[in-house]
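Order emerges. As here.
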Amino acid sequence: MLSVQTIEEAARFLKPKLIRTPVEYSSVLSKYLGVPVYLKLEFLQQTGSFKFRGGLYAISCLSAEEKKRGVATCSAGNHGLALATAAKEAQIPCTVFVPKTVEQVKFDKLRDLGANVQRSEFPGYDDTMKWARKIIQEKNLHFVSAYDDEQIMIANGGTLALEILEEISDAAHFLLPVGGGGLAAGFAFYAKQKKPGCTIIACQHEGSPALKLSFERGEAVTELPAFDTVAGALEGGLGERCFPYLQKHVDHVALVSEKEIYAAFRWLLSNHQYLIEPSSTVPIAACLKSNFPPLTGKSILVLTGRNVSLATVQKMLGS
């Protein structure tokens, strides 16, 4: 279960194995929003995303029997890269199931790591997961969820929140991208334990608003139809285990459009010269919306991943 103690224990384990990614002041966003704004550059983490935290921690928690069976996961790319890297270091077999629409750069990296990569015939994450689950059960592999697992919430979200608060202890608002919810669940839990008055703003694609729909229905919306987007990591349903933490600790859901993601991608490149994944730009996209609610104190935008292909970059820049 999530607790301050388990998150702090995971942080101690991970500290010597991770890059301590910078927190950078954004003068242009600060001027635009009227409060000090900082960017957590977690896309500079090993394997190109925050997911390396969860991959390392999950592998470290395996029993001898689970290691012998080998691990498997379903991933839009970044969790697969993290798990495959950690499994390779531990000399554990790793199978990664990916949607048909996975970024080619992520697919190629997975194969280079020695993972057994299985590409589905489905464009969406949820359908790929159903297909993968059957094979994983048949082969008796140990499944590591990309988000719907307490160990993943602890490491991906909890230790990231801890790291940010060690550096900026008086932060008032946190803006996070949300797909399946593992990052936001762990992050929001820890941040609220340490700073009960802080605000957690979950940023989602309007084409797959699983968290918003879950709040409206009072239960986790775990499946949503696939849709065409450059932000594949935001597509799909919410984790059932994640929802209670999100329901209790998230204060606001900000929805952004495909067009706004394109604009945020170009804005970040123009103003900060950072090239990141479209899925990671949603906190920027939310802040740039004309109807974004006013912020009242120091604000942290978590930028989560950089594994984007040249083809997607060219598409987003219109070249």
Notes: The chain has a mean pLDDT of 96. The beta strands are 23-25, 37-41, 71-74, 94-98, 116-119, 142-143, 173-177, 199-205, 252-256, 299-303. The first strand starts at residue 23 and ends at 25.
